[in-house]
Each structure stands twice: as structure tokens, then as C-alpha cells.
Specification:
There is one protein chain. The chain is built from ten helices and two strands; from the N terminus they run αβααααααβααα. It is an all-alpha fold.
Amino acid sequence: MITKKAILAAMLAAPAALAIAVPANAQVAGIAYANPTSVVASSKAFATANQQISTTYKAAFDQMQQRRTALENELKPLVAQLDANKDGKVSEEEGKAAQNAKNPAIEKIRTAQTNAQNDLGRLSNPAARAELFAIESVLRQYEAAQLRVVNARKISVVLSPEVFMYAPDSANISQAITAEIDKVAPTVSIQPPADWQPSRETLAIQQQIAQAAQLQAYQQQAAAQRGAAPAAAPAAGAATQPAKPAEPR
């Protein structure tokens, strides 16, 4: 984004020749890396926007939960028809047998799932659109915030972490950029204009944040199933922070 789009493009389009081992004084030497997804997810504005979205669209979220419950209840008797040995689950063999026998329950299951997905998409769309607008509003602050960090730390080049073979923690300026955004834009609107459409970068960042949240939920569920206490939920930035470039051992 040397405009917003240019920063993202420049970070991702760094030539392969730059994928070299970076010395420990990377930032002092003028080279740093940052991740826009981490910056957005860690910002105060995004956290506040999510709180507002949870309140504003609570009725829709409640309806979504009710629709998921209705789907589960609808599927239970249909799935039971595929459970030949009545052990409470459908094995791969049982599924194949039902398909070969053209069991009508299979088509009913597919139809029920499709209808539920359509309903959930309709119910979630306003909240998802509000979140996208908040993400894009934070991204509008990215260029100026990055420039302030670059000037303050005398950085010459900012790259994506993926192009490094090695970099120390000090080379990561994502948190510094977030701090700058927090100073000037601690809140953003969640009400997009009627004709507003999100950019491709905004859509990609929302997807990455959602994937990180799903992974965190899966890890906590797995820990609970093992009988271990789930780890404390990390901050949003930590959840979306990509792995730091590998350090030599």
C-alpha cells in the first residue's frame, strides 16, 4: 500500500532474490517485515467493531444458531437411516453402501444442508458486510501508519515475512504499525454505504482472520476432549500472526 493496494502488492511481490538470510541487525540495516492481517486483527478499532457487530446483529446470530440446531434435528433421523449397524455413526463403508443402494436419505441430507447453508448465508450477510467495512476502514490507515514507523526507525524496505529465510523478532514491525493506527483511529464505522463493495484485499484478510479463529476454536476443542484445560485465548493479533521467519539453530 503505497496506496492501500500497493502496499499489499509490494509485500507479496518481492523478487526471489530478496529471500536471503537477514542478519540480526535487520531493522537497523533498514529491512523489516509486516503482515497486514495481523495489523488489522490486533487493532483496537477492529476489536471494538466486533463488539458493536455482536450487539447490533445479535438477533441474526440467534437465528443462525436456531437454524443450525434445526438442521441437526432434521439430519439425525436421516443419518440414522444410513447407520446400518446402529453404532451411532456412519462409517465410510455404510456411506458407500447407501449410495450404491440409492438410499433416498442421502439426497434428503444434501437438500437439507444446502437449504441451511442458504439460510445461514442470508442471515450472516449483513454482519459479514459490516465486518468487511471495518476491516477496510482500518486498512485505510495502514499507509500513513507504516510510513510513520518507517521514518521513525529509518527503515528502507518493508517485505512480507514469507520472503525471509531468517529474521529476528526486531524486524517485525506489525505491532508498531498497529500502535500507530490505534493512536489515530481507535474506532471505525460498521455501517457501509448502500453501494459500497469490499476490495479483494479486504475479502482475503477477512478470510484469513476467520480461518485463524476456526483453528483456535478447533485447538481449544481438541484440548477439552483430551481432558486438558484449554489454553487462554491469544490476542487477535497473535491468532493471525504468521509464523516468524525461521531462525537458524
